[in-house]
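Severity: low
Component: inverse-folding endpoint
Summary: output formatting inconsistent between runs
Steps to reproduce: submit the following structure tokens with default settings.
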């Protein structure tokens, strides 16, 4: 199967799956909880004597830093891809 067809089939399956989901938040709750738990664990390792409120604040900042780093990598990837297309 060519990449375009595979992408379209995957997109169709994703849209169909989400159309069958009445409460998207409940569907993704377990994954969101696990991700937040990872940031909280790291915050507790960094600050073992911190209060729960402080840990929540640090965990939120760690999460924001993580997603910002992902944005930077994605932007660099797009620039590199654009540059390779321009030189081709």
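Observed output (run 2 of 3):
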């Amino acid at each position: 199967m060519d990449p375009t067809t595979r992408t379209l089939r995957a997109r169709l399956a994703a849209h169909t799956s989400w159309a069958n989901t009445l409460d998207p938040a409940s569907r993704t709750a377990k994954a969101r909880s696990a991700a937040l738990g990872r940031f909280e664990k790291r915050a507790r390792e960094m600050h073992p004597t911190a209060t729960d409120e402080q840990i929540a604040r640090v965990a939120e900042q760690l999460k924001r830093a993580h997603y910002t780093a992902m944005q930077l990598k994605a932007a660099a990837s797009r620039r590199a891809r654009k540059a390779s297309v321009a030189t081709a």
